[in-house]
Amino acid sequence: xxxxxxxxxxxxxxxxxxxxxxxxxxxxxxxxxxxxxxxxxxxxxxxxxxxxxxxxxxxxxxxxxxxxxxxxxxxxxxxxxxxxxxxxxxxxxxxxxxxxxxxxxxxxxxxxxxxxxxxxxxxxxxxxxxxxxxxxxxxxxxxxxxxxxxxxxxxxxxxxxxxxxxxxxxxxxxxxxxxxxxxxxxxxxxxxxxxxxxxxxxxxxxxxxxxxxxxxxxxxxxxx
Length: 224
Known about the structure:
The chain is mostly helical. Helices cover about 80% and strands about 0% of the residues.
C-alpha cells in the first residue's frame, strides 16, 4: 500500500485543490491496489486553514472518477483477450445487470467497498462509458464530501491538538461502515433488480423485511 505521507507530499507539492485532484486520480488509478487517498482528503479538510470540505469533496470526486475511468478502459481493452465462452458469459452478465450497472457503480464507489471488481466487469462487457463516468464520479464525490466533512467535524469536536483521538474515532466509524457493507447481500440485490426491476425489489423487501432481505446471505448460510 502506498503511504499516506507520500500522498500528502504530492498534495502539498502541487498545492491546494489541484493537489487533492491529483492525489485522488492517483488513488483510483491502479486497479485492485488500495491507496488511501481518502486519508489525505480527511487530513486536508481537517487541518488545512481555509479549506472548504464541500469543494474538497467535489474536486476529489472528480479526480476519483477520472482515475476509475482509466481502470474501466483498461478492462475494456482486456476484453479482446477473452475467449468466446467468456464473452458469452459477459453478455449474460450484461443482460442480468441491464440498466442497473450505473446504480451498482454508484453504490460501490460511494462506499468503502472494493469497486474495482464491478468496474472491471462493466469494462469487459462494454458498458456505456458516459453512464459509467457519471455514476462513478457521483459516487466518489459523495464519499469524498462525507470524508471531508467527517474530518472537519471530528477535529472540531475533539480539538486539533488531539490528532490521534480524532484519527481513532474516524477509524472506528470506517470499520463500522465497512463491516455493514460486507454483510449486505449485493449480488442478490442486483440479481433481483436485473430480473424484476424496482417493483420486484420492493416486493422482495416487503415480503422479507429490510433487514431480512439485505442480509439474507447469513440466513441462507444457516439454512444450508
